């Protein structure tokens, strides 16, 4: 007879053993799993913000400002609609490319190339934040738009704009710091023995930030 201790484990018993054995679950490292959980939570927050924006815009009694006029940029004496926003979008999309290449070279063990690609990504992120500061300054100083008021129409415009773009800007700023720190640790050799999956995890965050901007661009600036 088979003794009680030699009986095959049931489904729930196997799951308990797996989860308590300090091993990778579903063949995914804990670092990557935690990043995915964080990004899912962040997705809900940004989704709520964009839904709130649509609700506020559709329910506003005053005229909603034309984004083509508000966000026009003067170039050679001509105002070009959404020029600055288009440049900012291009910068973020380009930074996603440099980050993806950094992940590829990291897994190849090419630390120097990985470092400079991550630094390029961080630099592009800083340029994006700089353009956003310029955009905010223009709206506040030149146009007099505030979170509690808007001389161009619906008062809710300023509040929803600063909330959404400000929250995203904080994510970009945090991402720049995150990338910069990881890049320095890659160059120093901190991940030589542990592997370079941290670069991929960093890339997951950065690609998420870029993807969110695409939705903000489509919903807020093009609508």
Description:
The protein is mainly α. The chain has one domain: Up-down Bundle (Four Helix Bundle (Hemerythrin (Met), subunit A)). Helix content is 71%, strand content 3%. The chain has helices at 11-19, 30-59, 67-70, 83-107, 111-142, 156-188, 197-221, and strands at 73-75, 78-80. It has a two-stranded antiparallel ribbon. The longest helix has 33 residues, at 156-188. The model has no long low-confidence stretch (mean pLDDT 89).
The computed structural class is mainly alpha
Q: Number of helix segments?
A: 7
Name of the CATH homologous superfamily: Cytochrome c oxidase, subunit III, four-helix bundle
- The stretches of 5 or more residues where confidence is low (pLDDT under 50) are none
According to CATH, the fold-level topology is Four Helix Bundle (Hemerythrin (Met), subunit A)
Beta-strand residue fraction: under 5%
Question: How does the overall form come out from the CA principal axes?
Answer: flat
Strands of the widest sheet, in order across it, are: 1-2
Termini gap:
73 Å
Using only C-alpha atoms, the radius of gyration works out to 23 Å
Number of domains: 1
Proportion of helical residues: over 70%
Helix and strand pattern:
HHHEEHHHH
Query: What's the CATH architecture?
Result: Up-down Bundle
The tally of beta strands, per DSSP, is 2
Mean pLDDT over the residues: 89
CATH level 1 name: Mainly Alpha
User: Could you describe the largest sheet, including whether it forms a barrel?
Assistant: 2 strands, antiparallel
